[in-house]
User: What shape does this take?
Amino acid sequence: MIKFVVLNMDASLTWPYRQRDNDYSDAGRHFDTNRYHVRRNGNEKRQRQRKNLVLKASELTPNELTPMIPARLVIATRESRLAMWQAEHVRARLAALYPQCSVEILGMTTRGDQILDRALSKVGGKGLFVKELEVAMEEGRADLAVHSLKDVPMELPDGFALAAILEREDPRDAFVSNDYASLAELPHGAVVGTSSLRRQSLIAARYPHLTILPLRGNLDTRLGKLDRGDYAAIILAAAGLKRLGLASRIRAVLAPEDSLPAAGQGAMAIEVRAGRADGIDMTALLAPLNHADTAHAVTAERKVSKIFGGSCQIPLAAFATVEGEQMRLRAMVATPDGARMASADVSGPSSAPELLGERVAELLRGQDAAGILASCAVTPDNHEGLAPHA
Assistant: This one.
């Protein structure tokens, strides 16, 4: 026996394009209503004509029912060159998916962009880069915000959600210098700049003869400080350099074994406001941009970070890789000087990323991770610079 599903739909809202009465297009897939029984209301001149489409249930799939598409979408973003590149990338992807929708960008300056004379660990951490964008969404000035996932707090405010995680760029750290080819070549007392307590602790542990100083500002500002001689070398995320066409500035890429990446490093996230009044499902709209393997990997990483109160105020790394149905998750916590460190390396099903994160966190706890992080909390602004060890 054939079962039928009867859908009462407004054709002007449900399908992106109307080419002719018997041909509807859905992202390159076509619906020919000659295949189905169509009953018209009879009033062809009504602006919002309604149709009853009777579809065989066996032929009805979720992909054949596209989300309602707004006429206009506004992307909120920081105004740095890298942030604007990321927003333009998302805008181009959305424009290709929904050409009938006008996609615009709203550039904004966040408090994190304004405070450049102090370490993030001292002035508030990750939330400094996203708050203003969330306010724009809350006030209806923007529909979505594009972030570097590494900058997104582990806990989002009520009413906000991460709707999509885009495919990851190179997640590794990059060594950048005008005079030296690697960290190992730097002479005693050479100054290395980094914005990260995680990087500081890892460098201090392996190269105690180096001086590590904080490095703030956007990517171009940091490179400018290197070029004018403030630092012998700086450590940056490889992803940002590659996205901006600056891969030639990279002298060496640091392997995860030497510099384990931060949770979410190299991944872009799209944040939305839940429960829109107009009924538009932003999560469904953004679903084609979501990359499943990346989403699973960063979910595991962020679980570890969340368990330990992950922020810019603690040296914590978490990095997952997915191979088929298996995931490998590595993590570490350390003191800023690298003197104490705990690490874990676990593999398991990629379908259970949060469980894997919990297992790794438990292994870290068994190595006194709580004690290590407690020592960091005593001096939360420990990023004021480490002199070389005697």
